[in-house]
Specification:
Blueprint lengths: L2 H15 L11 H5 L7 E13 L2 E2 L5 E9 L5 E8 L1 H5 L3 E10 L2 E4 L2 E16 L2 E17 L4 E12 L6 E10 L5
Antiparallel strand pairs: 1-2, 1-3, 1-10, 3-4, 4-5, 5-7, 6-7, 7-8, 8-9, 9-10
Length: 183
């Protein structure tokens, strides 16, 4: 697995997104006491992910998706994601996944949010031979790096466990996101 490469890409993107005037952190004491709270609203993004199964990255099964995370200072918010695997489409199979649950946005610093999350996972597929689906649960941790503008980078990992699967699936993701501005 090439997680050091993923971390280098995230660090490079963070330096490009950083601004001399970063947005205030949503949970810092100065942000809570000021008239300008941190980002509130919906964090929306498009992602690219690589699954890891039995400790091995499977780049041929990369996923693309969209996600929405509700940002509320220090409070649980809704967290949703929809995705598909382009490789499956080229093989004549419509495969999709959905994740739904809650995330707790925490301000690590003025331009960095940490998003622990938990929820349910759904996978399904359909092709010429029929279709099937399964459900499970997930837990994840993501970081969002943003500057004073609305652009940001989200990177994270989500652990998925399905009842009928022999092992868990880890999904490493990188996403470009729109960060809501403080109200």
């Amino acid at each position: 697995m090439h997680s050091p490469t993923l971390l280098r890409v995230a660090a490079l993107a963070a330096s490009l997104l950083a601004s001399p005037a970063p947005a205030p952190a949503q949970n810092s004491p100065s942000a809570q006491g000021s008239a300008e709270p941190g980002p509130r609203g919906w964090l929306i993004g498009a992602s690219f992910g690589v699954p890891v199964i039995d400790g091995e990255a499977v780049p041929d099964l990369f996923a693309i998706g969209i996600h929405w995370t509700q940002l509320r200072p220090g409070r649980l918010g809704a967290d949703f994601s929809l995705g598909t695997m382009p490789r499956a489409l080229t093989e004549g199979v419509l495969a999709g996944g959905a994740r739904g649950g809650v995330a707790l946005p925490l301000a690590f610093s003025a331009g960095v949010l940490v998003l622990p999350s938990v929820g349910v996972s759904l996978l399904g597929g359909a092709g010429d031979g029929g279709g099937a689906g399964t459900a499970g649960f997930n837990a994840g941790l993501a970081a969002v790096i943003h500057g004073a503008g609305s652009a940001g980078l989200r990177t994270g990992v989500t652990w998925h466990r399905f009842g009928d699967a022999g092992s868990a699936v880890w999904l490493w993701e990188v996403a470009l996101v729109r960060v809501p501005r403080p109200h």
